[in-house]
Write a structure and sequence with these properties.
The chain is of the alpha+beta class. The chain folds into two domains: 34 residues; 171 residues, Jelly Rolls. Helix content is 17%, strand content 39%. The protein has two helices and eleven strands. Strands 1, 2, 3, 4, 5, 6, 7, 8, 9, 10 and 11 form an eleven-stranded antiparallel β-sheet that branches. The radius of gyration is 25 Å and the shape is globular.
Length: 218
């Protein structure tokens, strides 16, 4: 009896190991529940991640050497007073993409900002790709702000006085392009030309309603 009591657990252990190996191999072949979550791998099914900016700031043409990086508000503005006084506000945002595997395919990427002010005029705001990721939140001004694509990747219509809500831009192509750089820089800019068009958004320093970038990738 004693010999049997020793042999039986050994046989059970061997059978259990064989069974586990078989289950793991089966799951790998199906791709169910087992995926590479490391920085250099490729997920077996789509994943979604939401990022907040690592830097954001607005720049103002009429205060061209002033930095607004600590301000809780981002802004976009265009004004032209009788063709005598013209000015702009643009807003820069930067995101860290290092949590997404470099060889991923970006399925969808939405930049979202929460609006707290829109003037009476309906405003079109464009999101532009900026290849420069060396600017800093506390250093950027109108005079040293990096250039960006002249054509917006996406445009969103902001209706006059339709405030206190999220607005979004589809920047999927920009995120895919920036993935190898591991950082993304976007610029928001008023696309209208007229007497005055403008809108205000909360920045990452507002403490709430921070800008966000939601990315689905595979």
């Amino acid at each position: 009896m004693k010999a049997k009591e020793i042999v039986i657990p050994a046989i059970v252990t061997i059978i259990s190991i064989v069974a586990i190996v078989g289950v793991v191999s089966y799951l790998k072949s199906r791709g169910d529940g087992i995926e590479n979550v490391g920085g250099g791998g490729t997920p077996t099914s789509p994943a979604t991640i939401t990022l907040n900016p690592i830097a954001d700031a607005r720049v103002q043409s009429e205060n061209a050497d002033i930095n607004y990086g600590r301000d809780p508000g981002l802004g976009v503005l265009y004004f032209n007073v009788s063709n005598i006084w013209e000015g702009r506000y643009n807003s820069y945002l930067m995101f860290d993409l290092s949590s997404i595997p470099t060889n991923s395919s970006i399925i969808d990427a939405r930049l979202e900002l929460y609006n707290y002010y829109i003037g009476e005029e309906t405003t079109i705001v464009g999101a532009h790709y900026c290849p420069n990721v060396s600017w800093t939140e506390l250093g950027i001004t109108w005079n040293n702000a990096p250039s960006f694509s002249s054509t917006p990747t996406a445009e969103t219509v902001l209706e006059g006085y339709k405030e206190n809500m999220w607005y979004s831009w589809n920047i999927t192509t920009d995120v895919q392009y920036a993935l190898s750089v591991r950082k993304l820089s976007e610029v928001l800019k008023v696309e209208d030309i007229g007497p005055i068009f403008g809108a205000g958004f909360y920045s990452k320093d507002s403490g709430y309603y921070k800008p966000k970038l939601t990315i689905t990738y595979s």
